[in-house]
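This follows on from our talk about sequence and fold. I would like you to pick a protein and set down its sequence and fold. Go ahead and set the record down below:
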Amino acid sequence: MKRTLLIILALLAAVSCVEDFIPDIKEADVRRIVVDAVLTTDTTAHCVRLSASAPYGTPSERIPVISGASVRISDGAGEITLREDPGTGCYYTPEDYAGEVGKTYTLTIDGSDVDGNFHFEAQDTMPPAGVRGDAIDYYKMSDSLWVFAIWGQDLPGIVSHYAADLRVNGEVHGYGKWITIDGYQMFDGNYLNGGEYFFYTAFDILGTGEETPPLKEGDVIELFTYSMSDFFYSYMMALMNESIAHMPLFSPQPANLPTNIKGGAAGVFALAQSIRMSLVIGNPDRTRMEMLADHGMLPPGL
């Protein structure tokens, strides 16, 4: 009994000695330029976004952006200078610009910040398409959930990783813009291993207001599938891991994200091959059985 009492007292003493540790870190000591640049094979105005690091929990609209920089992209045959959208931190390629498979692209950034002048460089090669999309279809699961099915093949001999992005009438729905962490629905191509595939991807489209109305007849659905390099995949997986809540007991320690930006910046310059598939919603109440029947996937007699 005496021994048990001593153990309890020791535990209480240990607990009472625990104090909150608040590190004395000045924002200026950890300020870094952050590069967010993804170039795809889509023909569009691609954005290279420059911002500065900010304390954890800073609202996105208050994160400082970097203006007045010179941002250039070279493909080995020529170089373009990107146009800045003032006040946004975005520097855009021409609207008819698209990455080409097999080409190596170099991003060069020059400018100044509170710590003086900076010069950053990054390089990546556009990967081939690791997946072939043959068909896309849908069915209604509930009043606020539609499921989209994809038929195709993971092409043999190409090691790739993928992310998917869904847009409704040109607007991003479900998990948000694909180039942000919330937009990734990622899976490793090794799971498919060169075989034919058919899989579902569910996007929760809530009919709760004007911003997220339920699907209706005539809505245009676009599904983008992106093949990415090993580095881009590892970067996004690390970003996802650092962005989610870490609960004890065996949670990983916080860590800096990997980067391919040379010169002291954080972030990533990455290339991704894209495949676009689209459809127009006919019957928004279409059932799963109706979808499978249209594709000859029901057993005889059903």
Notes: The radius of gyration is 24 Å. The helical segments are 2-16, 27-30, 230-243, 288-294. Confidence is low (pLDDT under 50) at residues 174-184.
